[in-house]
Specification:
The protein is of the alpha/beta class. Helices cover about 35% and strands about 20% of the residues.
């Protein structure tokens, strides 16, 4: 999937290759990204920021270009439902019952090519800070990530204002989104009417039993590449605050009842 996403992005951008690529996934040591790119001969930066990896890649790609180090770069991320469940929680064949706060890791991939020109511009970026509210349940990642999203969004609003047509978070899901609204209202900020969550929007809750929604590094990457960029190009969204969120979850530390730190990277994109 990640190989196809990269190839499609390059084709759509009209370029044979890029100078550098930032890529990551949820499998041990970013194996999906490494295996997919091993024959591409592109300078590769392997990233891990959990479900926020795609946003981190966009920021680093834009910084590399703005600094004059490369002319083109790409950000890519992927995730796979069965692989993520086996690594982070339990094998599916175990038959464990999922709680209502659990999210469905998206089997998905996305890639964005970043260059010196184009109809969508990255104008600002805010790398996230690690925030840990003390959540220990790996089946409640929305609650773990919401405080990080609130921290980053509040920082962006304080620095450059709140003039955005849409604030899109990565994959907070149903419960994480509601928690985000509460946390921001405590800071005097209300985003509910402008908020869009990739995880909450990826699936059809009426037809698909995905509990709290989607998640995974490929979730916001696919929704951004397939939906949000189209909304920007069509003019339906003129200024987007894109905030991928990531639960920096370790199965080893979860087994030891450690809390789940989280991060949220923000990227401002304008038509």
């Amino acid at each position: 999937m990640i190989r196809e996403a990269v190839e499609d992005a390059l084709t759509n951008a009209g370029v044979p290759t890029v100078d550098a690529i930032f890529a990551g996934d949820l499998q041990n040591q970013c194996t999906a990204s490494s295996f997919a790119l091993r024959n591409r001969k592109i300078h590769t930066f392997g990233l891990y920021s959990a479900c926020a990896t795609f946003g981190e890649g966009l920021i680093l790609a834009a910084m590399m270009i703005d600094g004059g180090y490369v002319q083109t770069a790409a950000s890519a991320a992927s995730s796979h439902f069965c692989a993520a469940e086996r690594q982070y929680r339990m094998p599916l064949e175990y038959g464990g019952q999922r709680t209502q706060t659990a999210q469905w890791t998206a089997t998905a991939a996305g890639c964005a090519v970043v260059g010196c020109s184009g109809d969508i511009h990255i104008t600002h970026a805010c790398p996230g800070r690690i925030v840990d509210l003390g959540i220990t349940d790996p089946a409640n990642m929305g609650a773990a990530m919401a405080p990080a999203a609130a921290d980053t969004i509040a920082a962006v609003f304080k620095e450059i204002g709140d003039d955005f047509d849409m604030i899109a978070t990565g994959d907070l899901g149903k419960f994480g989104s509601e928690m985000l609204y509460e946390l921001l209202r405590e800071k005097g900020i209300d985003i509910e009417k402008r908020h869009f969550d990739c995880g909450r929007s990826m699936y059809d809750f009426e037809k698909q039993d995905v509990h709290a929604g989607g998640s995974g590094a490929g979730c916001c990457a696919a929704v951004f590449s397939g939906f949000l960029t189209k909304e920007l190009r069509s003019g339906k969204i003129k200024r987007l605050l894109f905030c991928p969120t990531g639960a920096l979850l370790s199965p080893v530390f979860s087994a030891q009842k450690e809390t789940i730190p989280a991060i949220c990277h923000a990227v401002v994109l304008e038509k």
